[in-house]
Amino acid sequence: MGRIAILGGTGPEGLGLGLRFAMIGEEIVLGSRQAPRAADAARRAQERLRVVNCTTPIHGEENQAAVRGADLVVIATPFAGVRELLPPLAEMLAGLVVLDVVNPLIRVDKQFTIERVPEGSAGEAIQALLPRSAVVSAFKTESAESLNAIERPGAGDIVVCSDHSEARTRIMALAERIPRYRAVDAGPLINARSLEAITALLLNINRRHRTVTSIQILGLQK
Amino acid sequence: MGRIAILGGTGPEGLGLGLRFAMIGEEIVLGSRQAPRAADAARRAQERLRVVNCTTPIHGEENQAAVRGADLVVIATPFAGVRELLPPLAEMLAGLVVLDVVNPLIRVDKQFTIERVPEGSAGEAIQALLPRSAVVSAFKTESAESLNAIERPGAGDIVVCSDHSEARTRIMALAERIPRYRAVDAGPLINARSLEAITALLLNINRRHRTVTSIQILGLQK
Predict the structure, then answer these.
(1) Domain B3-209 part of CATH 3.40.50.720
(2) 3-class DSSP assignment, residue A174
(3) Separation CA B56–CA B52 (nearest Å)
C-alpha cells in the first residue's frame, strides 16, 4: 500500500487501526494537531507492536506533515473536527484514496445515537469536503477496543462503501489482509449512513451486556 | 401469547411474520383496510401452512376488527400509512404491547435508505402515536423473503428495543420460540433508528450480491 497516514491517529480508533495496519507490514504515520503528541503516540505504539513481534515503523507527525507522501489517508478524528480540518488539506488529498472511519456519535439519555448530518452521514460529508478524493467508508463498526486488542485477531465483517469502485476494492483488499476480517462490498457511499447507525447500536449493546460486539452479515456466498 | 393481530398483515413482511408466529402455535388475525382482501390472504396463508403441517388458525379482518380482542398487535404497514392508521386505534391499543416492524425506506439513486423521521425512527413515531401502548421494535432487519420461506428456519439475530422493559422481554421470549432465532436486548427504543438503517443496508447488499442476508451480533456471551 505504501505509506498510510492516519489523521486523528492518536485517538483510540485511529491508533488501533494503525496498529492493525502495521501488523500487516504497512508503514504508518500517526497524525495529530500537535507534533509532539503524535511522536509520543508513535513511540508507545512501537513498544506495543514489539510485544507481538512487529517491527514495522510507526512515525508521528503534525497532521499536514503526516499527509505528505502518503498513499492512503485515514480520517479518524472526531466528526466535530472534520469541517475545519479537511478543507486546508483538500488540495493535498486530491487524487488519493481516503478511508473514513468516523462516526458522528452523540448521546441522548445515556444512549449513543447518530447526529443529523446534512449530507446524510459523516462519510458523505467527508466526500463533499474532499471532492477530488476517493472517499471509502469502512471499519466504522469495529470498536476501538477490539482494534487495540492486538494480541487477538479481529472478528466480524468490515462492510465497505464508496462511490469510487476502484478505491472500494482497494480498501476491501487491505481489510482482508488483516487476519479473520472479511470485507463486504456494500456499494455506494450512501450506505455509510447505515454503518454509522450500526456503531451506535453496537456501543449501546456493549454497555448493556458489558462486552465488545461486532457484526456479521449472514447469507453471503463466500 | 393469545391472539396476535397484524396490521398490514397482507403485505409480505406482515404475512411472513404471521406465518412464523402461526408455526409456533399463535392464533393470527391478518388485518387489512379491506376485509375481503384480509380474508383472502388468510385463506392462502392457511394453505401454505398446511404444507408444513401447521393447522393453527389464521383469520383475516378489516384492521379495526382485527385489533379487537388481540393480546399483541403488530404494525407491519408501510410507514407512509401509520400517521393516518394509528390515531383512530390508539384507544383500543392502550395498555397493549405493540410490535413495530416498520422500516421507513426510501430510494435514492437506486439505493435504499431511511427517510428522515422527525421523531428519529418509525419505532419512535409509532410510540408517539400510541402513547398508552408499549411499543417494541424488532424483526425490522428480517427480510420478508426469509420470513416467508417457511420451509427453512430463520437465521440471524432479532435485535429488540423498547422503552417498556416488560414488553421488550415478552417480545424477546416470543422471538426465541421461533427456531434458530436469537433475541438480542438492545435497550431503549431510540435504537430503532439503527435497526431501520440496518434494513436499508441489508437490502442494498442483497441486491448487489443477489442473495438474502441477515445480521448477527458477535461477542455476546450466550
Answers:
(1) yes
(2) helix
(3) 11
Enumerate residues 6+ apart whose C-beta is below 8 A from B169.
Answer: none
- Which of A140, A194, A211, A222 has the highest number of chain B CBs within 10 A, making it the mutation to test binding with B? A194
pLDDT score at B222: 63
- Pull the grid cell for residue A140: 466504522
Of B134, B122, B137, nearest to B94 by C-alpha is B134
| A37-91 pLDDT tens trace | 999 999 999 999 999 999 999 999 999 999 999 999 999 999 999 999 999 999 9
- H helix runs in B78-130, sequence order: 79-85, 90-93, 122-129
Q: Which residues of chain A does B111 touch, with a Cβ-Cβ cutoff of 8 Å?
A: 187-188, 190-191
CA distances (Å), origin B128, targets B63, B121, B131, B163, B168: 20, 11, 5, 12, 17
Q: Do B191 and A204 touch (CB under 8 A)?
A: yes
Please state the ipTM of this predicted complex: 0.96
Among chain B residues, CA nearest to A213:
B219
Distance CA A62, CA B198 (A): 37
Angstrom distance (rounded) from CA B164 to CA B150: 30
Tell me, letter by letter, the H, E, C secondary structure of B141-205. Answer: CCCHHHHHCCCCCCCCEEEEEECCHHHHHHHHHHHHHCCCCEEEECCCHHHHHHHHHHHHHHHHH
Nearest to B195 by CA among B130, B108, B135: B135
Task: Tell me which amino acid residue B176 is.
Answer: E
Give CA separation, A110 vs A105, A130, A204, B119, in Å: 12, 33, 9, 17
CB B193 within 8 A of CB B20: no
Contacts of B190 (CB under 8 A, 6+ apart): A108, A109, A111, A113, B120, B121, B124, B161
Write out the H or E segment, with its range, that includes residue A59.
Answer: strand A58-62
Does the beta-carbon distance from A218 to B216 stay under 8 Å? Answer: yes
A215 vs B185, B209, B218: nearest CB:
B218
Tens digit of pLDDT for each residue in B101-132? 999 999 999 999 999 999 999 999 999 999 99
A145-185 pLDDT, tens digit per residue, is 999 999 998 889 999 999 999 999 999 999 999 999 999 99
What residues form DSSP beta bridges with A62? A32
CA B41/CA B45 separation, integer angstroms? 6
The ranges assigned to domains in chain B are 3-209
